[in-house]
Design a protein that fits this description.
Elements lengths: L7 E3 L2 E3 L6 E6 L2 E10 L3 H18 L4 H30 L3 H21 L6 E4 L5 E9 L2 E5 L7 H12 L3 E5 L5 H13 L7 E3 L4 H10 L3 E7 L2 H12 L5 E4 L4 E5 L5 H13 L9 E7 H17 L18 H16 L3 E4 L3 E2 L9 E2 L2 E4 L16 E7 L2 H9 L3 E2 L1 E5 L3 H10 L4 E4 L11 E2 L2 E2 L7 E2 L2 H5 E9 L14
Parallel strand pairs: 7-8, 7-10, 8-9, 10-11, 12-13, 12-20, 13-18, 17-18, 20-21
Antiparallel strand pairs: 1-2, 3-4, 5-6, 6-25, 14-17, 15-16, 19-23, 22-24
Helix pairs in contact: 1-6, 2-3, 2-5, 3-4, 8-9
Bound molecules: 2-aminohexanedioic acid (UN1).
């Protein structure tokens, strides 16, 4: 079989993993299509990457922020010209349909232009000193070498959410992409190099979470970690990072509810639910995985929703007619299967889907049918635990207050959506839904890069990407300039 072999980028040089091992990146729609072999790196490779990033930090931090931003601006322009190729590469390694991978590359472009503008802001504050002839201000400083660990579901957008704000702030980076989707991160990093990023400022190291990711998390010279992935792994990352007191930004799971009230525009709510549940084959942390239906519209909505779910075209995402691609790997399909079985054992009703697809065009991929489960109650595991697949459950309720209670009754808090024409209820929901993102009359997916992205409860640990990332990737320094030419003692002189 003929496929390319990729290498790590360390200090501006492309290098194989020191132990010489590689992992194959397979097309989830057709496992006979090998996208490439990527390095299986270990602690030694990470140590080299961190050393390169540390060396580059000495000069990168002194490049004026507007100049650092110009690299991102050029990268955004280059991404525009490469969008179609990168989208195709992404569909091939990750599976989601072309319209969505184009959106993923577009999200990186949006992020580049947004963050490039930040290069001329990075504002601090000035404030009066309590003493005469003394000046006080706070300035944003880079953190140093930062470690970035990214997931497979948004293989270019999410690396860009981390890399670009880290870079404009003056940090240098070691990034580890998900083993399922390293090519899209290669494409992003290659674009940064082509845009003029100096050697060592971004170092790309491929490998597993256990071997490569943890080596980054534990390295004493890495000053902060930004991670997106499951809550289970996020907890491990935070625990290991605590040993060296690293700040950690965690973006993790969701169990996102779309609430549909009796007065909603039903067509709109159906469109939103279908897109929110089965877009990206349900593999988004923002995916709609619970649809809460008020009793007056529940039957009508359910019938129509199931009919539409059954009609979705499943297949290879490179085919423009396909609406739902494969799941990213066998493990994800097994999780979908497992949760359907758990739901049925707990009394849920299978309204459509529920099985992996193995025949004909599906024989060499990891496909799972769009699945709708009815008769679900909020205490069932299917209503509480993240599946990360094309599996959605329907829960009925009587009153608006009950809907809010059910929506909030879980451990996660990323995204919520409410469909209604009642402005009072819309504002009440905006206030009372426990989630980092709330949509009114729009699906739970589709966040824009210039707003804060993140969640509450087990979804995150208080940090935000998008508008908020620079807060994580900078540290405040308070600076006092005394121009009185004498010793002035704060809290003591001028105290009366
Ligand atoms: C994710 O689900 O991991 O808001 C990120 C959205 C996308 C990002 C999703 N812009 O759905």
């Amino acid at each position: 079989m003929n496929y390319p072999t990729f290498q790590n980028l360390i200090g501006g040089q492309w290098l194989p993993a020191a132990e010489g091992k590689t992992t194959l990146n397979l097309n989830p729609a057709d496992h006979s299509d090998v996208v490439g072999a990527f390095p299986s790196s270990h602690g030694g490779d990470v140590a080299l990457a961190v050393a390169a990033a540390k060396k580059a930090f000495a000069t990168w931090r002194l490049v004026p922020a507007p100049k650092r931003a110009e690299v991102l601006l050029r990268a955004g322009i280059l991404l525009q010209s490469r969008k179609e190729q990168y989208a195709r590469d992404m569909t091939r390694e990750m599976g989601k349909v072309l319209a969505e991978t184009r959106g993923d590359v577009q999200e990186a472009i949006d992020e580049a232009f947004y963050v490039a503008g930040e290069g001329r802001r990075l504002f601090g504050q000035t404030t009066p000193s309590e003493l005469q002839n003394k000046f006080a201000m706070s300035v944003r400083m880079p953190v140093g070498v930062v470690g970035l660990i990214t997931p497979w579901n948004f293989p270019m957008a999410i690396p860009s959410w981390k890399l670009f704000p880290a870079l404009v702030s003056g940090n240098t980076c070691v990034i580890k992409p998900a083993t399922d989707t390293p090519l899209s991160t290669y494409n992003l990093v290659q674009t940064l190099v082509d845009a003029g990023l100096p050697p060592g400022v971004v170092n790309l190291v491929c490998g597993s979470g256990a071997a490569t990711g943890m080596a980054i998390v534990e390295h004493p010279d890495v000053r902060a970690i930004s991670f997106t992935g499951s809550s289970q792994v996020g907890s491990l990352v935070a625990q290991h990072a605590a040993a060296t007191f690293k700040p950690v930004s965690l973006e993790m799971g969701g169990k996102n509810a779309q609430i549909v009230l009796d007065d909603a525009n039903l067509e709109l709510a159906l469109d939103g639910a279908l897109w929110g549940s089965f877009g990206t084959t349900g593999q988004r942390c923002t995916a709609t995985s619970r649809i809460l239906l008020q009793k007056g519209i529940a039957d009508k909505f359910t019938a129509e929703f199931v009919a539409r779910a059954k009609k979705l075209t499943i297949g290879n995402g490179l085919d423009e007619a396909v609406e739902v691609g494969p799941q990213v790997n066998e493990g994800q399909v097994e999780t979908s299967e497992k949760y359907v079985a758990i739901a049925l054992a707990e009394g849920a009703k299978l309204l459509c889907g529920g099985h992996r697809l193995t025949e004909g065009a599906y024989a060499h991929g990891t496909f799972f049918e769009p699945t709708v489960l009815g008769a679900v109650t909020s205490s069932m595991r299917i209503a509480r635990e993240e599946v990360f697949g094309p599996v959605v459950c329907l829960i009925e309720f009587d009153t608006f207050e009950q809907a809010i209670e059910i929506a909030n009754s879980i451990d996660y808090g990323l995204s919520t959506a409410l469909y209604t024409k009642d402005v009072n209820r819309a504002f009440t929901a905006m206030r009372d839904l426990e989630s980092g993102i709330t949509y009114i009359n729009a699906p739970t997916i589709g966040a824009e890069v210039h707003l804060p992205f993140g969640g509450v409860k087990r979804t995150g640990n208080g940090h935000r990407e998008g508008n908020g990332a620079i807060d994580f990737f900078t540290t405040w320094k308070a600076v006092y300039v005394d121009y009185s030419d004498k010793l002035q003692r704060a809290q003591i002189d001028n105290a009366e």
